[in-house]
C-alpha cells in the first residue's frame, strides 16, 4: 500500500524536480524524524503571509513556517488506531514559499530544490520541538550536523547568524 505523499503543492511548478523532493522528504521522515510523518505544502508568498499573520501575528511573507501536530492548519492527518503508532502519528505541517525559495537559491547560488530541502530540514527540526531563538544553539548545531550528512548547502540558521554579524 502506497502512503500519502509528504509534499503537496498549491500549484506544482513544471520546472521543479518534485520526485527528488519527495524522496528527500522520505529521507527526512525516516532519518531525522525517526519514522514519524509530516506534511509539507509548497505554496506561494500570499499563503505564507496569510498563515504568518494568522498564527504569528506578523503580516508579511516568510520562507518557511512549521505547525506542530495539534496546531497544523494545512492538513489534518486522521489517525487510525489500527496503524502502527510510530509511523502514523504526524509531527505536523510545514509550509514553504516557492517564491522565497527561488529568491534565496539565487542569492546563495544553488538550485531551488536545494533551498526547499534546506527549508524542509529547518521545518522538521522545529516540528521536533527545537527553537533556535531560545535553545542556546542546540538547533543550529543539529541543523549543521544534518545538513552535512544530507549534503546540503549552508543552512538557514547559519545564514541568519551571518546576517546578524555583518
Description of the molecule:
The protein is α/β, with parallel strands linked by helices. It contains seven helices and four strands, in the order E-H-E-H-E-H-E-H-H-H-H. The chain has helices spanning 18-32, 45-56, 85-88, 98-108, 112-127, 138-150, 156-165; strands spanning 7-9, 39-43, 64-68, 92-97. A four-stranded mixed β-sheet has the order 1-2-4-3, with helices on both faces. Strand 1, helix 1 and strand 2 form a beta-alpha-beta unit. The protein is globular and about 35 Å long. It starts with 6 loop residues before the first strand and ends with a helix. The relative contact order is 0.15.
Strand percentage lies at 5-15%
Helical fraction equals 40-55%
Question: What is the chain-wise order of helices and strands?
Answer: EHEHEHEHHHH
What separation lies between the terminal Cα atoms?
51 Å
Discrete helix count: 7
Largest sheet: 4 strands, mixed
| Count of individual beta strands | 4
Global shape: globular
Low-confidence stretches: 76-87
Could you tell me the mean pLDDT? 86
Structural class: alpha/beta
What is the strand arrangement across the widest sheet? 1-2-4-3
Q: Which radius of gyration do the C-alpha atoms yield? A: 15 Å
